[in-house]
Automatic annotation (TrEMBL):
Domain NAD(P)-binding: 9-139
UniProt name for this protein: Uncharacterized protein YbjT (DUF2867 family)
InterPro entries: NAD(P)-bd_dom, NAD(P)-bd_dom_sf
Record SUPFAM superfamilies: NAD(P)-binding Rossmann-fold domains
Coiled coil: none
Organism per entry: Maribacter caenipelagi
Length: 223
């Protein structure tokens, strides 16, 4: 039987690559996007639901699928207000997990970040850690949280500081081996592929995957 997938954050780098993969994947005949704005030029298998994701409950009836992929995330530069930042990076993934639980969706995958820790003194890390905890608290049978390191890939928007950091990190990549492998730059396409592979490997458990393990998961051929 063909499957239905939900994507939150399809307009972003990782979410966009994930969308491309699911469109090309014949295991899926329906892909539901929930976003603030419409993406043009998509095939008929993609159904777009446009609205305010900070009020995700408005989509309760439409929020049905076999799997949910949450690639939502913002940056301190784009969202300097900490309350709004938390509304996005914590609020949307947790609200989506609650809807998934209520609607009987058994697989939930969300992109978090390396360093996520609910007890951290760093606001960003603490927000991600609190999000992870409350996603797990929903008790969805197959819940996967991916903690990538610095994400590489071509973005539409220009982030000069991020570009500089990526250049520096690329130069020192050979130094990241052994326990340091998880700090290597990881490509957004690799994250997207790992998510698809995870969704099609039923584990019936809660898992947290770091960057080096994301790389290995992406290499699996499950078809």
């Amino acid at each position: 039987m063909k499957k239905t997938a939900i994507i939150l954050g399809a307009s972003g780098l990782t979410g966009g690559l994930l969308l491309e993969k699911l469109i090309d994947d014949d295991r899926y005949d329906t892909i539901k996007l929930f976003s603030r704005s419409r993406i043009e030029g998509l095939p008929n298998k993609v159904h777009q639901h446009i609205g305010n994701l900070l009020e995700l409950d408005q989509f309760e009836k439409e929020f049905t699928a076999d799997e949910v992929y949450c690639c939502i995330g913002t940056t301190a530069k784009k969202t300097p207000d900490k309350k709004r930042y938390k509304d996005i990076d914590y609020g949307i993934p947790v609200a989506a997990a609650k809807l998934a639980k209520e609607n009987g969706i058994s697989t939930y995958l969300v992109v978090s970040a390396m360093g996520a820790n609910k007890k951290s003194k760093v606001f960003y890390n603490r927000t991600k850690g609190e999000m992870e905890q409350d996603v797990f608290n929903q008790g969805i049978p197959n819940t996967s949280i991916l903690r990538p390191s610095l994400i590489g890939g071509e973005r539409d928007e220009q982030r000069m500081l991020e570009k500089i950091v990526l250049v520096v990190f690329k130069a020192i990549q050979p130094l990241f081996f052994g326990p340091l492998k998880k700090y290597k730059i990881i490509n957004a396409e690799t994250i997207a592929q790992a998510m698809v592979n995870l969704a099609n490997t039923k584990s019936n458990s809660d898992v947290i995957i770091t960057s080096n393990d994301i790389e290995q998961l992406a290499k699996r051929n499950l078809k």
